[in-house]
Every structure is written in structure tokens, then in C-alpha cells.
């Protein structure tokens, strides 16, 4: 069979990986796919740099539109990033009847509904294994491997930069700002790290996973997003003493539905935030820039997928897996393909109605609260009394020895409370009441806690 | 589209899971697959019991041949087990043009070549996700998710019974025999546990994974198989002190090939045996009856897949994923399907020649040796001298305090040596020489060690 013809838009770090791996493993890949996969054109503003990467093996163009409009190209790999030009190019490629492979999580999390609808109408595939957790085949596991299951929840370490920072904070007992600078020096964090450290990148990925796990439309705008910038070494240490690690998790969880008692809220929790995780869980031991995703299905139970979440060749591994899938199904009846969001489009529409993304106040989870309090009799009773009044039960309390505050003479202490499951809306109210107590001397630190059992 | 018609041969524990999950999640599964999947007939010698499971929803027959020969059935799910009747039924189903889903690792590891060839000729699929690591979609990850990679090695905890026993031995400091009895009482080990504890079950699974990872024929007869029956609590404790856990691993590793220096052996190591694994690796922390498989690819780096390796519904999760794959591709051109052993059949034949399964003496790994020696001056020098003469370097030595042997007056001690990588053939020779020393008082314990880095 004729090799499938591929054009790469924006050949940079990932594109170079795709080119190198396709060349190095071309024979194995052809023997698996049953046909060759050839990169015949690449685009990059700096054409000379692109020429250095691909040599004479492919056309090099400055304008990516020259690839999108080239009738000889079967699949377009979009590696430009961002949401403006990438969106235009992807839609134009689809309109031209080309299949698309993209690693662009932001594009799909924000414009996925438009893009998947256009692709469905045109009968082409848009594949995005590389958009979530790099080389880990998590999209394939969710869409195909676990297809028998009603997915109950998933929780993932899906941003390598923040996991590297949290690992370093714990190992070295340092605060966020110090470690961020080190991560930037080592190349683990970008010069402008906002998207990573504020949780936005993880939220893009969690949005995509929530859509394919539950068959709902992508709804990035409804995701709750909280980063790691406010975490201190002190909370990591206290968590450790209580048997927990702190990880930035992207979580998507089904609530209610079949078997729900009447009146219970039905929908999907979609949230990214730092979380206490029991230290004995495998995912708590995922260190450095590695990624891992846990998926809980009603039949399979707990599963976990681990690997590199970024980098040139790990990401290329996912891009090429998509190319092979498309090469295989390219000429087949579209009905034989796996639906973009795992469920048939009409089911996605109706699920979207039945399973709305819930407001954060409706989230049910447990909490770590740290209060800086005056070391006086009765403070703990007052604080725990407020929880009791709200019907929130306590799992554990850790009270540190009082320490003198320099220059003030008075003594202060940290009280740490772990709660059992409760509604976020309920704990918000109690935190506001606690904060108003004269004996609570600093802003209360609240970190969510996930047992992942 | 008309629901796909499924017949189940041998509806027992797994079959019940398949029936229950298909019923419970029928709507979600139909929305994913794009068509319904219906079990229309089941077989079991005890028809009354089968009737209790399926009620009136399916025909119940005593003779599985009534299903294989039923022209209305599209897919046969073989859950009878064993190699005789199961082989006949699977071949007959293929000859009748039916697709087959099986959880039978023994059948495929031993008769896979014959079965896959028959299926290829007839243009039907034989799917076997459930044959390896239960609900973990490891077959899909290897065949599709990592298709860009030249796989370097894989190593898995792929037998829950032995992992449960090893976890208990470590937790409680007990010897093998005691824990086996407990495992049998709790239902984690069968009345005749031979296939599990001797490593045969793990070797069946490792054989299947080696075939799809490297595109070679299944060659169970060439696998090295060693179980856990000779492990003592003492070795688990010493391993712990040196920073290792002991796990029963199924390993398949590529040696030589592209980039090999001339004269280096090329081929595949295929082996199951207890292994020391660094305690900090995720896989070392997989406890109880859980399974996990690590896969190292040249592009993706290290990945890991974790979940339940057995049980009614986890296995059913894998069977149903295969049913959905087949339902999807059933009417498609066979060229669009994923090849049985991940590579096109002609490539499997030629890989089989280029990459033979190596004899165990050619394995290269490192070793834990425990010697029971007389507590005399010069013993350690003598023992380590033998290693040096053979060119085997030492990574670590642990010498325990001497203990009195009751009633003899003389003192004995344990010497533990960790080696660096060497050929199995070379260490065999050294162990024989050590064993012949008069100061070595008991059979030497040798356990292989895998760094998995």
C-alpha cells in the first residue's frame, strides 16, 4: 500500500521527535501499520532551521497553509500550539478532508466542540493522544481499553513542571518561590510558567479526559482551576506527618446518576487543585516530572497509567500512535472508528444535559485546614465546635507545640484539622466563621484531600 | 445497526462478569460501540446453573459445539480454559468464520501460532486482552499505544497469587509454606496452586507479551520458568536491608539488534523468576493480588500499567473491550485491523528468525547470592576471589553476625553478595565452584536482580 503522506505544521521540539522516531523505527512501524508513514512537508517560520531537521527528505515551507492546502497530504499534524492560528489551520485542514493529529490540549479543551463537530460532518479523524500525559496511552485506555466500564472517577498528575516543583519542595524542605527558580534554571519550568503553576495546563488535560470518560462535551470554562503557588513547605511537612503527600491533581468524578438517591446532585466534578493523597498510594510516589493517571471503573476497579508526560520523543510516541491508527482506518467506513469523545455524537449531546459540570460549591471531598491560632485555652474547642455545628466530622487533628513569635512575646501555634467528606459549600461557610474568630491570627490554609480508594 | 450476537463457551466466574457488566452498562457500551452487543447463547455442563446466571435472556446449551456451529453467532467467547477442548472449539469457530475472544493464556502461549495463522487465513479476529493482566489494557497499550517504539524490555507482576504470597511473606516475616496455606484459605490460591507458584501462569502471559512487543512467534517452550516455592523469609529480609523487594517478574528483553557491537548475541530474553527490584521503583510497591507491567520503549521511555489482574469483573472488562473492538471492525476490510501479534504475519516470521529466544545461559543480569559459610578468616576473600577470576564485579556485600548452630559448637554466618551485570552462564560456573568449597555449608541461594532503570 502507498505510504500515507503527512504534513507537520510547526516543526519544533515535538516535531523533531516525530521526524526522528519515524525515521529510526520506520521498519518496525511499517511492519505494525501495514503501510509506510512519510513526512512529506513541514512548516516553520525559520525555514533554515526546519531544513536542518528534515534534510532533503521533506518539503520545507514557511506558511503552514501551504501544507493544509496541499492535496497530496492525507494527515496534518498540528504542533503550532495556541488557539488562534492553530484553530484556523485545523478547521481548514478538516474542511479540505484531511485527518488531523494534534498535541494541542488548549485548542481542544476550548474549541473541541466546534472542531469535533466539523470533523464528524466531514468524516475525518482528529486524534489527540499527545494532548494528555505525553507518551502514556491514556486516551486509548479511556476510549477503548476501559470501554466496558461506567467510569466513576479519574485523577491524574498531568503536569510535569508542577510535580517536579512539589517533589523538590518536599525533598529539600524549600518554599515554592525558591524551587520555581531552580526549575526554571534546569529547564523544567518555562520563563513564563503561569499556565503550568496556576493549573491551567492540567485543567485543559482534565477537561479532555472528563469528556472521553463520561461522554460529555469539553467544558474548560466550567473547570475549577487552582495552582500550587500558595503552597508552603510547612504544609507539605504537616501533610507528611499525617501520612499524606501533596500533589497537583486533575480530577473528574461522576456524582449521582444510576442508583443515586432522590434529591442527590447528579453531574460531573471537574477540578484541578493541590490535593493531599495517602502516601501509600502508588500515585503519591510519582516523583519529578513524571505523569500518572488513575482511573476507577465500575468493572475493572482501580487502574493506573504512568510515564513521561512531556518531552520530544515521549510526545512523538503518542503522535505516531495516532498516525498509525489513522493510517489503518483512513479508508474505512467512519462508522468503524472510535468516536472522538469515546461516545457517539448524539450520546455526547444527551449526556451533556444529564451530566452537567457541577459548580465547585457542590463538590464533595475532605479537607486539610491549617489555622494559625493564639495558644490559649479553648481555641481548639471553639474551632471544632464550628465544624460540628455544620455537621462536618473530623478525621484527625494535629496541634503543633506553641512557638514564640519574635518580638511579640505572645505565643502562637498551628492547628491542623483533617475532615471527613463534606460539601465544598459547607466548608466554605465554616472557614469564613473560623476566620472571623479573634484567636485565628492568619489566613486559614485549606487544601483538599483525596483518598483515591 | 443490528446488535452483534455473542456466544459464551463455559459461563463460570468470568462469564458471569461479562454477562453482568454487559447488562449493567449496556447503554454506555452501545453509545461507545455504536451498536449493541448481545449474549444470545451460553454453554455450561451444569445447565441449571447457567440458567440461574442468564435467566431467560439467552439460550443455554450443554454442548459448546452447539454455539460454535450456530450460524447466527458472530463472536465466540472462549472461557472454558485448558488446551484440548478449548483448542478444538476455537479452531472450529475460526473455520466457521466466527471471531473469537479468549482469556485463555495457556492456549495462546502454546498453540498461538496455529490459531493466529488459521484466523489470518479465514480473515477473522482472535482477541485476547483478558489473557494478560486481567482488566489492565496492556495488550492494547503494547500493540497500539506504543506502536511508534522499538520496545527494549518489559517486566511485569502478572500473577496475583504469587504477588499476594510475597507481600504477605514480607509483611509478616513468614516462610512460603505458611503463607501459601493462608492464601488458599482466603481464596487467593487454588487448591492445586502449581501453575501459579511455579511461575507457569506468569510464563504464559510473558510469552504473549514478548510476541506482541517484538513481533516474534509465541514460544512458551523456550521460556525460562522458575517459581517462588524456594524463597525464604530470610532472603526477603536481607533484600529489604539492601534496599530491594522481591517480586515474581515476567521479563522479555531485546538484546543486541540495531546498534549491537559485532559478536554480541542478538535475540530475546524470555524468563519468569523471583527478582530483586529496587524498593523505590513503583513496581516494587505493587502489593497484594494487584498486577503491574513496566514497558520500556526507545521513544516513550519507561511506562507502567497497573490494575487488577484477575477476578470476575476486571477480566470481563477486558473481554468486553475486545467485543467492542470486534463489533467495530467486524465488517471492515481485515487490512484495517491490528495484527494479532502487533506486526504483519510476514514480519513475525522474519523477526522470529532474527530474534530467537535466547537460552538462559545467555541472559545478562545481576545477582543476589546468599552463602551459608563457616565463620572463619579468609572465607570472604576466597568467595570474592572466585568472582574476580570470572571477571564478575561486586556491587555490595552484606555479612551477618555469626550465629551459633545449636548442638554443634561451631559458628556459621550468612554472606550476601550483590553482583553487577554478568552472563548467567558465567555465574553458574562460579556458583558451582563456590558450592564445592568446604567452608560453604549449605546450598547457595541465587536470586536474580533487575534494576528496571
Automatic annotation (TrEMBL), chains A, B:
Give me the residues that bind NADP(+), please: 9-16
Q: Identify the keywords attached in UniProt to this record, alphabetized.
A: Amino-acid biosynthesis, Methionine biosynthesis, NADP, Oxidoreductase, Threonine biosynthesis
Q: What is this protein called?
A: Homoserine dehydrogenase
Q: Which domain of life is it from?
A: Bacteria
- InterPro entries membership: ACT-like_dom_sf (IPR045865), ACT_dom (IPR002912), Asp/hSer_DH_NAD-bd (IPR005106), HDH (IPR016204), HDH_cat (IPR001342), HDH_CS (IPR019811), NAD(P)-bd_dom_sf (IPR036291)
Provenance organism? Xylophilus ampelinus
Tell me which residues this entry annotates as catalytic.
Answer: 205
Q: What residues bind L-homoserine, as annotated?
A: 190
**Entry's PROSITE patterns?**
ACT, HOMOSER_DHGENASE
Query: Which residues does the UniProt record annotate as the domain ACT?
Result: 368-448
